[in-house]
Write a structure and sequence with these properties.
- By secondary structure, the chain is mainly alpha-helical.
- The protein is elongated and about 110 Å long.
- 49% of the residues lie in helices and 5% in strands.
- Strand 1 and strand 2 (39-42) form a beta hairpin.
- It has helices spanning 49-59, 64-68, 98-102, 119-132, 136-142, 156-170, 176-179, 187-191, 207-220, 246-255, 257-263, 269-273, 281-344, 349-360; strands at residues 31-34, 39-42, 111-116, 200-203.
- A 4-stranded mixed beta sheet has the order 1-2-3-4.
- It has one domain.
- The N and C termini lie far apart (99 Å).
- The chain contains 14 helices and 4 strands.
- Residues 1-24 are annotated as: Disordered.
- This is Sulfotransferase family protein.
- Residues 318-345 form a coiled coil.
C-alpha cells in the first residue's frame, strides 16, 4: 500500500451513503447531543477529544466544578471531562427514542460533526498518552500486565523499540483487546457514517475551520459567542519518522486499512517520514515524572476504592444490626404482652388493674 497521497485542506468530503437523519443511530454510544444548540458531536478519542468535550460542556452549560470534584484515575483536571456520568442534559444518541433521533438532521438545522486524523499518527499519540507517560487507567490498571508495556525510556532507541513492540501486539492475534479500546479503535468504526447524518467532518488540523463553522451555526440559533478550544499537551515527544520503520508502518497500514481507504487522500505520510526532530533530555525527564505521578495516582485511586468498599460494608453491617435490634425489640414487646396476659388471667378485677399499672410503670 502506498503511503503517499494528496493533501486536501478544508472540510472532509461527506459520504454519499450518509442517511438523512439519525433514526438508525441508536447504537452510537460515543455521541453527545446538545438539544438547545442543535449540535451533535460524535467523539473519536485522540482527535482533540478533550478540547472538544470541554467546548461541548461550555455549549451545554455544564459546571466545571462537578468534573473537577470527581475522584478517580484522571491524571489532570482536564481529563475529568471524560467521566460521562457527570454530564447533565447531554444525552447520547443511544438514550433518545427513534422519534427524537428522526428530528436530528442537517435538513432540520442540526450541526452534526466529527473529527478525523491520520490513524498512524493517532496510534502514536495514543500510545504516548496512555502508555509511555503512564496513564493511571491504562498503564497501571487496564493493561498493567501487558508484556508490551513500555519501559521508562532513557533514549530514542528505547522509544522506537517499545513503540514497535506495541504495534506488533496491536496487529497480532491478541490485538483485539487493544482495538476494543476507543483510543485505538478504527475511526471508521467510531464515526458510524452509515447511520449518522453528518453535516460536517473535519481533519484535526482544521479545528479553526470547525470553530468558525460552529460559531456561524450558533449565531443562526440565536446563540452567538466567542467559543474557543483548550489544549493540554499529553504527548511530550513530537512525531518523528524514525518510529515508523517498515514493519511498524506495514502493521499500522493493515490495522487501519479501512480508515486509510476512506480518508487516506487527506494525508501525505512521506512528510511524516521525513521528520527527524531531536527529543530533548528534558522530554525524557518529563516522561519519567509523569510515569511516577501516574503510578501514585493509581495507588491512591485503588486505596480510595478499597476505603469506599469498606464504608459500604460497614454501612451494610450497621443497617443489618439496626434491623436485628428492631426485630429483637419487637420480640421483647410480644413476650411482655404475652406475660401480661398470662399474669392477669383469673385475677379479680381490682387486683388485675393494679398489676396492669405495674406493667405500664404508672
Amino acid at each position: 500500500m502506498s503511503v503517499r497521497s494528496a493533501q486536501v485542506r478544508g472540510r472532509v468530503e461527506l459520504s454519499g451513503a450518509r442517511p438523512q437523519d439519525a433514526t438508525d443511530a441508536g447504537s452510537v454510544w460515543n455521541s453527545m447531543v446538545v438539544p438547545r444548540c442543535k449540535v451533535v458531536f460524535v467523539n473519536v478519542s485522540k482527535n482533540a477529544s478533550t478540547s472538544l468535550k470541554w467546548l461541548t460542556a461550555e455549549l451545554s452549560g455544564q459546571d466545571p466544578a462537578v468534573f473537577h470534584s470527581v475522584m478517580g484515575l484522571a491524571p489532570t483536571r482536564q481529563q475529568t471531562i471524560h467521566r460521562r456520568a457527570s454530564w447533565v442534559g447531554v444525552p447520547k444518541l443511544t438514550e433518545l427514542d427513534a422519534d427524537a433521533r428522526a428530528e436530528i438532521s442537517p435538513d432540520n438545522g442540526w450541526f452534526v460533526f466529527g473529527v478525523i486524523r491520520d490513524p498512524r499518527l493517532r496510534a502514536w499519540s495514543a500510545w504516548q498518552s496512555k502508555f509511555l507517560v503512564g496513564n493511571p487507567r491504562h498503564a497501571w490498571h487496564k493493561f498493567r500486565d501487558a508484556p508490551w508495556m513500555p519501559r521508562v525510556p532513557r533514549d530514542d532507541d528505547d522509544v522506537v523499540a517499545d513503540f514497535a513492540r506495541f504495534v506488533e501486539a496491536l496487529g497480532g492475534p491478541g490485538g483485539q483487546a487493544l482495538l476494543g479500546d476507543s483510543h485505538f479503535k478504527p475511526q471508521t468504526d467510531l464515526l458510524n457514517e452509515d447511520v449518522v447524518p453528518y453535516s460536517h467532518l473535519y481533519e484535526v488540523s482544521e479545528l479553526p475551520l470547525l470553530l468558525a463553522d460552529l460559531r456561524t451555526h450558533l449565531e443562526a440559533q440565536g446563540l452567538p459567542g466567542t467559543y474557543a478550544l483548550t489544549r493540554e499537551n499529553e504527548t511530550p515527544l513530537s512525531v518523528a519518522g524514525r518510529v515508523f520503520g517498515a514493519d511498524v508502518l506495514e502493521a499500522l497500514n493493515g490495522v487501519y486499512a479501512r480508515d486509510i481507504e476512506r480518508f487516506g487522500h487527506l494525508w501525505d505520510f512521506d512528510k511524516v517520514l521525513a521528520k527527524d526532530p531531536a527529543w530533548s533530555p528534558e522530554a525524557f525527564r518529563d516522561i519519567a515524572g509523569r510515569v511516577a505521578t501516574g503510578q501514585r495516582i493509581a495507588d491512591l485511586a485503588l486505596g480510595a476504592d478499597h476505603l469506599r468498599a469498606e464504608v459500604r460494608e460497614l454501612e451494610a453491617g450497621r443497617r443489618a444490626d439496626a434491623r436485628q435490634v428492631a426485630r429483637l425489640e419487637a420480640r421483647v414487646a410480644d413476650l411482655e404482652a404475652a406475660l401480661q396476659r398470662r399474669t392477669l388471667r383469673g385475677l379479680p378485677g381490682a387486683v388485675a388493674g393494679r398489676v396492669r399499672k405495674t406493667f405500664s410503670g404508672t
